[in-house]
What does this fold into?
Amino acid sequence: MNVQPQYQPAAAAAPPPPLPQWVIEADTLGQQGKHHQLHQLLREFHHFNRDQCAKLRAEGYSSLSDLVNWKYKEIRSLLENLSNRPTTRGGQQFGDLKIKELQGLSWFLPDRSRRGLSFDLDLYRKEASEYISFAEIDSEITNDEAANKLKYDNGTPLLATIESR
It folds into this structure.
């Protein structure tokens, strides 16, 4: 009995998996490298919407390094102003949670930068809620220091100094 081997056609290569939505958006916006990292973090981890990310980019915050010098109060001020503005005038809604998430991120990035460490986003993702708390604590300490500067003038309470003049 003569059995001829059957020809099996090679299986067609599987198509590559589709790109995540945030990658498509970042590519559409022309974001590369560090700009990609911030976009991914905001979209995938913090669940910012596309318009919120686009608004931050339009305001000049498109990469991780852009957030290094962004101060706690400045973040709240800008995002509350954008939230209060009508969308027809360039407004974009940012809730309190989104503001706090950006404040936590903007606390983490300068902290790492000052200590000469890389922006370890895996570490950030693991402990993001702690960085939000650290940002709030730092803000309260800064507010207390500013209040103390007003309370004393050369070691004398400011009220007593004003009354003596």
About this structure: The first strand starts at residue 152 and ends at 153. Helices lie at 21-28, 34-45, 50-58, 72-84, 96-114, 121-126, 128-151, 158-164. The chain has eight helices and two strands.
